[in-house]
């Protein structure tokens, strides 16, 4: 397996109207490949390759950001046409979208999986039948021949937990917000906290609950915790930014936000603003722009046979965002239009 590491950051582009057609577009429409055209012929002047990106749920901030960055990144390749098909947070919908895309002759499928363990065998089967796949942003490495572009979730948890260790007393009381059940990113981030923070201090976990990555659920759970634990809570340890921000808003309504530290993961624009305003203590960036650029590069190299193995696995670096360096990210998000 090839391993490469890269770095960067970025933005947002409108979804193309043709995306409404989803994977159901005919191979004879637009600039997609004609029946019988090989990848080699396309690479040598034929029509375009058809690539599908199947995100988890476009209503989720990171999935939307990644879709926009992929749309931008693929503009660098004139022989590739990208279509984004929303899975709307439903595993069955994502599985159906995969089946349809393969049946319709898409040349490559980029998958932001909802449940990797439930999808690995299916993806492996499609690859064996001849359709290359990439796992992006989330991968349990259950498919050897699938490409992969991720920010290591354990590393994301490590950099934030290390900072939390310096910001909290050894005997702090914390509440923990988890991602969806079975989600690899949530599991690995939580494991990093256990091994680097909880297991090395006298901290007490007052409670931990699944917030499904959602701001509203983070807020609801925090409201409940405030009722039960009141001012005992020293910190909110969240496996993503959205839940942390929701928890902050609940604490603010209760008037206790200044007594609690909030830690997240993702490094989204609204989280950078929260760090700048002193609402969040820290987050870790997993850079959708870099993921998209690496994903587009790998896809192009596989389709044009520049990559002879047919896949590549990449882990991009992670970056801690705190009050010390947040101004850099505010500037970047403002310049690329994610902040006004």
TrEMBL record:
Q: Which GO terms describe its molecular function?
A: carbohydrate binding
- Which cellular component appears as one GO term in the record? cell envelope
Q: In its keyword annotation, does this UniProt entry include Signal?
A: yes
Q: Where do the Periplasmic binding protein domain residues begin and end?
A: 51-304
- Residues annotated as signal peptide: 1-27
> CDD domains, from UniProt?
PBP1_ABC_sugar_binding-like
The protein's name in its UniProt record: Inositol transport system substrate-binding protein
The organism encoding this protein is: Anaerobium acetethylicum
What lineage does UniProt assign to this protein's organism? Bacteria, Bacillati, Bacillota, Clostridia, Lachnospirales
């Amino acid at each position: 397996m090839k391993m490469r590491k890269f770095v960067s950051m970025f933005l947002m582009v409108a979804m193309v109207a043709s995306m409404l057609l989803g994977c159901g577009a005919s191979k004879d429409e637009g600039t997609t490949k004609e029946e019988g055209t090989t990848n080699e012929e396309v690479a040598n002047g034929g029509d375009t390759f058809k690539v599908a990106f199947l995100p988890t749920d476009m209503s989720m901030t990171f999935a939307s950001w990644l879709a926009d960055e992929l749309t931008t990144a693929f503009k660098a390749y004139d022989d590739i046409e990208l279509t984004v098909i929303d899975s709307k947070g439903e595993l069955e919908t994502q599985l159906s979208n995969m089946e349809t895309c393969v049946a319709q002759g898409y040349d490559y499928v980029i998958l932001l999986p909802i449940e990797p363990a439930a999808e690995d065998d299916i993806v492996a089967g499609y690859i064996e039948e001849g359709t290359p796949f990439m796992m992006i942003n989330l991968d349990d490495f259950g498919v050897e021949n699938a490409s992969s572009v991720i920010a290591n979730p354990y590393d994301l948890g490590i950099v934030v937990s290390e900072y939390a260790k310096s910001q909290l007393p050894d005997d702090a009381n914390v509440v923990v917000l988890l991602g969806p059940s079975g989600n690899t990113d949530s599991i690995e981030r939580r494991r990093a906290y256990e091994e680097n923070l909880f297991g090395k201090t006298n901290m007490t976990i007052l409670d931990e609950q699944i917030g499904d990555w959602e701001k509203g659920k983070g807020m609801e759970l925090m409201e409940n915790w405030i009722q039960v634990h009141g001012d005992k809570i020293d910190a909110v340890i969240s496996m993503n930014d959205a839940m942390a921000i929701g928890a902050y808003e609940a604490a603010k309504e209760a008037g206790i936000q200044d007594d609690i530290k909030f830690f997240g993961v993702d490094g989204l624009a609204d989280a950078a603003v929260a760090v700048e305003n002193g609402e969040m203590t820290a987050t870790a960036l997993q850079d959708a722009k870099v993921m998209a650029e690496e994903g587009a590069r790998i896809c192009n190299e596989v389709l044009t046979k520049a990559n002879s193995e047919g896949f590549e696995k990449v882990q991009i670096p992670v970056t801690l965002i705190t009050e010390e360096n947040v101004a850099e990210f505010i500037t970047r998000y403002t310049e690329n239009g994610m902040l006004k």
